[in-house]
Structure formats: C-alpha cells, structure tokens
C-alpha cells in the first residue's frame, strides 16, 4: 500500500507545525481530504479517520463561537479518532485550545497562510501523485510539443540517442532508463523519474550527462502526462509496415489505455523527426482531424 508521511507533506507544502511534532512520522494512505464541519457538531458516524482533516474559516469560526467547555469536548472527540493530522488554512490564529489536544495525542496540528480552496488543490495534487498506483518501465520519457511520450525498445536500439536529438531540438527530458508510470485517474497516466535518475541521460561511449547543465533548465521537466507509447524496433526486410495509418493500436498501463506506435529503425531514418511528427499528428487527431479519412475523401471526390 502506498503511503506518505505527514512530515513529507509539511516539507513539500511548507506548513507550520503548531503542535504534535512528535507525530510527524504518521502516515497518510488515502488521497481524499475531509473537512470535519459536521463532526464538530457531534455527528461522528462514519468519520473518515484515515484522511487528512482540513479546517477552513467556517470550521474555526464555528469552534470560536462555542463555549469553552463545549469546544473542548467536541475537539477532544475528534482528536480521539486519531486522524493523521489537522491542517488549518488562512493562517488563522487563537488555536491554543486545539494545540493542547493535539500535543497530548501526538497528532500534528499544521497551518498554512493560503486560502482554503487554493490549498485543497495543492494538497490533493500532492496526495494523488504520492499515493497513485505505479510501475517501472524500461525506456525514456520525454515531452515533445507538449505531448508526453514513453519511448521503448530493446537495449542498444537508440532510445537515448533519439532523446538527445529531441532535446537538442528544444524538447524536454523527463526520465531515462527507468520511467515511473503513475495512474492519476482512470484516464490519466503520469510519467516521471525515480529521483536518482533525475536530469541524467545515459549515452553509450560517453556516459552519464546532466541535461539541465548542458542545455539549460528548460530541457528537463519532472513529470508529464503520457499520451503516446512509441516502440523502436529493428527494421525487418520484406515486412509490411503500415504507411497509411489504418491500424490504430493501443497499449494499456495500470488500466489506462494510450495510443501505441511502432517505428522501425534502420540507418538513414531520422528517428527524432519521426517522433516529432507522431506527436504533432496525435495533437491534430485530438482536434478531430484524421489524415487517412481526409485522404480517402479526396479520392472519392476525384472519382466523382
């Protein structure tokens, strides 16, 4: 089961720790976020204790309006559910009564100056990526004309060389050798690195090169939504290759289906240029244009 520690959330989102620092090692295993407004009224049935608890202006204003005894009782009841942490937004103050309960239970009470809606989006994005199902795939991941591409092929076929040529044309490296694929939702596949191979490209005969150091920070990006799976394969003589695009193939990773293209490799073929065309053509198809259908229509018009 994937998990992320509260401490990682604090460091990534730059949160202030108000109380319960001893509990920063607590782990979050659910990417949903809960606002405990109803729970503060005393209704604790089906309370999602495994989720991060977020308190905005409404929740804190409600607590401030309660009597000291009632407020203490209701906060104590929620803290007793032992959620991973509480996060207060908008930099709200006068939380001493809340700090007391969290310190006693070793549950982190955190604070951010950001507005609730904006912060929820950031926190949700972090949790979804951190807790997403993932697999490792041997290949190279790039962003070409804004299209995430997973470039695969047998060892020595020229994946890294093609990636280098694309980088020199202004495109971006995401990961080389090992690509982590994460399922963000049923239709979204995220490609990223595993931190240790971040920014590096391996070239036989030269070794590891640091892409941002050589080509600038714009030559690398940490992640991309993968839309195309391109397989580089050795050219086979007398083998029929589809030159019209009749066969629309797909491949599935983590239950997410994306377009699959096979590009045969032989001396003289500009693989980087072909990958660029594949990315541009995919974008055109997303806008509703299909070159094969346009070609067939033209043939029909000529016959008429």
Description:
The longest helix has 16 residues, at 116-131. The protein has helices at residues 6-13, 37-40, 57-65, 68-79, 96-105, 116-131, 159-168, 211-215, 271-286, 291-303, and strands spanning 4-5, 16-19, 27-28, 33-34, 52-55, 86-88, 109-111, 133-144, 147-153, 172-185, 188-192, 200-203, 207-210, 223-234, 249-253, 256-265. Helix 4 packs parallel to helix 5 (96-105) and helix 7 (159-168) crosses helix 9 (271-286). It is of the alpha/beta class. It has a five-stranded mixed beta sheet with strand order 2-7-6-5-4. Strands 8-9-14-11-10 form a five-stranded mixed beta barrel. A two-stranded antiparallel ribbon has the order 1-3. The N and C termini lie far apart (62 Å).
Quick structural summary:
The chain is α/β, with parallel strands linked by helices and 304 residues long. It contains 10 helices and 16 strands. It has helices at residues 6-13, 37-40, 57-65, 68-79, 96-105, 116-131, 159-168, 211-215, 271-286, 291-303; strands at residues 4-5, 16-19, 27-28, 33-34, 52-55, 86-88, 109-111, 133-144, 147-153, 172-185, 188-192, 200-203, 207-210, 223-234, 249-253, 256-265.
């Amino acid at each position: 089961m994937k998990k992320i520690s509260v401490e990682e959330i604090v460091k990534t989102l730059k949160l202030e720790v108000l109380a319960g620092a001893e509990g920063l090692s607590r782990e979050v295993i659910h990417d949903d976020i809960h606002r405990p407004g109803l729970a503060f009224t005393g209704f604790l049935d089906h309370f999602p204790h495994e989720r991060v608890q977020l308190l905005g202006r409404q929740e804190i204003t409600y607590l401030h309006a309660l009597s000291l005894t009632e407020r203490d009782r209701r906060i104590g009841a929620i803290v007793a559910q032992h959620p991973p942490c509480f996060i207060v937004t908008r930099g709200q103050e006068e939380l001493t009564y809340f700090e007391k309960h969290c310190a006693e239970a070793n549950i982190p009470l955190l604070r951010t100056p950001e507005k609730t809606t904006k912060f929820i989006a950031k926190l949700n994005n972090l949790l979804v990526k951190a807790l997403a199902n993932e697999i490792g795939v041997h290949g190279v991941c790039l962003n070409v004309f804004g299209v995430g591409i997973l470039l695969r092929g047998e060892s020595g076929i020229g994946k890294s060389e093609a990636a280098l040529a694309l980088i020199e044309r202004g495109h971006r490296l995401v990961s080389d050798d090992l690509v982590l694929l994460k399922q963000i939702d049923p239709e979204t596949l995220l490609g990223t690195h595993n931190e240790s191979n971040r920014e590096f490209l391996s070239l036989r005969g030269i070794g590891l090169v640091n892409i941002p150091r050589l080509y600038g920070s714009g030559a690398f990006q940490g992640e991309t939504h993968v839309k195309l799976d391109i397989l580089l394969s050795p050219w086979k003589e007398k083998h029929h290759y589809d030159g019209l695009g009749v066969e629309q193939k797909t491949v599935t990773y983590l239950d997410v289906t994306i377009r699959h293209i096979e590009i045969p490799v032989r001396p003289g073929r500009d693989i980087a240029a072909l990958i660029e065309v594949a990315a541009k053509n995919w974008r055109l198809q997303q806008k509703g244009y299909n070159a094969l259908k346009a070609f067939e229509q033209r043939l029909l018009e000529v016959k008429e």
